[in-house]
Amino acid sequence: MPSTQSAQPLNTDTERPLSEPSIAFIGAGNMASSIIGGLVESGHSPDAICAADPSPESLERLRRSLRRTAPVRTSTDNATAVSGADVVILAVKPQVMSQVLEGIAGPVAEAGALVISIAAGITIDSMRARLGDSTAIVRCMPNTPALLGCGASALFANARVDAAQRGHAETILGAVGIVEWVPTEAALDAITALSGSGPAYFFLFMEAMIEAGCELGLERETATAMARQTALGAARMAIEGDADLVELRRRVTSPGGTTQAAIESFESDGLRDTVKRAMQAAANRAVEMARDMG
């Protein structure tokens, strides 16, 4: 969402637009750094962003990643970062989430902040148990292409999230890619299997194409360059083209040609069923992780 700084009245205490939320990131790793970078580049005031991490090295990496833009505020204390924030982004490992939530429960409740979690496997009920029943919570499943501004994030909100807070969540995650709301929290398990884990599937397929290209006589450097560019081109055609995937595939597949021979081989080997089984395994594991993490 574009910045509206020039058109909005200013809060004289913070010198930022009244409509612009103050955001606290708990955790300053790669995903948090990517979202912060996307927000700043889209016009969000760096003064309205604070990142907390116990590691000074992580905070320094964040500062270096933002060298082209104005720096955001940083802290090694979570409670300090959260104090007064409109939105709190939980970007920590699931294993430390319980400790983190207990440490910020007071400031979150006092500020009435929206909490957005990008941690896999941590349910809203689990977070509510530590933050309080009245907490507005959005669970988010992003994916690693967000590091390049090409992410795909699915969101689910509990009943405490109002329209303005939903807008904040869309703006924040929309700074690094597309955003889709899902109707149930359970749907996030399917999202995990599809887009959360999905980049790895494409990387594996590209690896297999490169290996096959080498066995067919290509130099590895050539096979790698061609596979990468082919994947990029196919993705852009799927997103920017004028037809659905079935039609795009049909246009490449000339009757009796080389592509048809390859497609028929994939189909006879059960590629679609293989993909279904793999995604079901990923979704099952997401459910198991949520159960294991309480």
From TrEMBL:
The entry's NADP(+)-binding residues are: I26, G27, A28, G29, N30, M31, A91, V92, K93, P94
Pathway(s) the chain acts in: Amino-acid biosynthesis; L-proline biosynthesis; L-proline from L-glutamate 5-semialdehyde: step 1/1
What is its EC class? Answer: oxidoreductase
- Domain Pyrroline-5-carboxylate reductase catalytic N-terminal as annotated: residue spans: 23-121
Which GO terms fall under molecular function for this chain's record? pyrroline-5-carboxylate reductase activity
List ligand-binding residues for NADPH. N78
A biological process (GO) of this protein is: L-proline biosynthetic process
Instruction: Give the similarity note.
Output: Belongs to the pyrroline-5-carboxylate reductase family.
Q: What does this protein do?
A: Catalyzes the reduction of 1-pyrroline-5-carboxylate (PCA) to L-proline.
Name of the protein in question: Pyrroline-5-carboxylate reductase
Q: Which organism is it from?
A: Parahaliea mediterranea
Q: Which gene encodes it?
A: proC
